[in-house]
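This section describes the prediction task in plain terms. A model, or a person checking by hand, is given the sequence of a single protein chain and must write out its three-dimensional structure as a string of tokens. No templates, partner chains or ligands are provided. The sample shown here is typical of the held-out split.
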Amino acid sequence: MMKRIIQTLKAYPLTVLFVLWSLVQFLLFFRYGFVTDFEGLKYQNDAHLLMEQFLINPQRVFYASYSIVVALLLEIGIGYYAVLIFQLIVNAWASYLFFTLLAKLLNSNVALITTAFLIVNVQLQMWNFHLFTEALFISAIIIYMYVVFTFDYKVLDYIKLFLLLIFLSYLRPIGISLAIPAVFFFGVKMQKEWRVNILVVMLLIAAVIIQFFIMLALRDNFSEFYSVATKKVWIIGAYNTVDDYRQLSFLPDFLKAIFLRFVYYFSMLRPYYSLSHNLSEVLFYPVYALSLYGVFGLYKNSPSRFFFIIVTIGIFSVFTILSHVNYHGRYISPILPMFLFIAAFGIENFRTRSIG
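The expected answer:
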């Protein structure tokens, strides 16, 4: 009986994933509703400014993509639930592309398991029910990864890649950074073609220059982190105990503070979370383990995809650790699908060894 059920699930993976996705979204909607306050108030104001005066808020130019989307959807006339519906549609599409990509590279069974992990991960899915940029940013990065990894050098591929990068660049300030892993991807993939190498070097230089200006824009955040860290150990900025306060008089202590922040960033645990919330974060740890097990398999399968993912994880993690306060896991969420992608190769390693 159980064997027949498993065979049925394997025969209809997309149906299984759709049912699972629908169940998760229903439960999260029951838990959160649609959160439009807090940071969502900024995007509401920006959307109304755009609708009424046709102006982009100059203080949030690099969030303009989201404000434009919200403004356009409000014109439908059903309120902010139009935004929620749109975010869910984009998330569902991203999940489908994630499955399709892994099914092409590996097989449908591994793709089914990995995409199921993607769907049940609360840290990723909860943002669908917030009027925050994360909702579209996470899904758009998955779509962007699919477009890059399946790039076929046709006119439509260039158009999709360009439009997605523009959209991401104005969705969150760090969005333009995604040009760098794409440059690495194409550079590694076509390293034997000298004309392409020249173009890649030029693009990489341009990307580094852009990255420099982004770092300048974030200098206040880093200055704050540095100034606070030189007075006390500042790990995530959300909590400190009396024991944490001490003078950091030399570089090793400062580096220790950064290292601790790195640990807390990837652990995703917070003392102000509920026990159930922290336990749900711990459930992601096997994905980390599978990623370590599968990382060489990914490199062997495709060095270009390997460098794309590693560079993306590196950029996002370093920028967050040095400049942002990752209070509620908002800044690690965009790279969690990258770990899941690598973990798929770990699952494939287990599968092939068990068969062998």
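For orientation: The chain has a mean pLDDT of 82.
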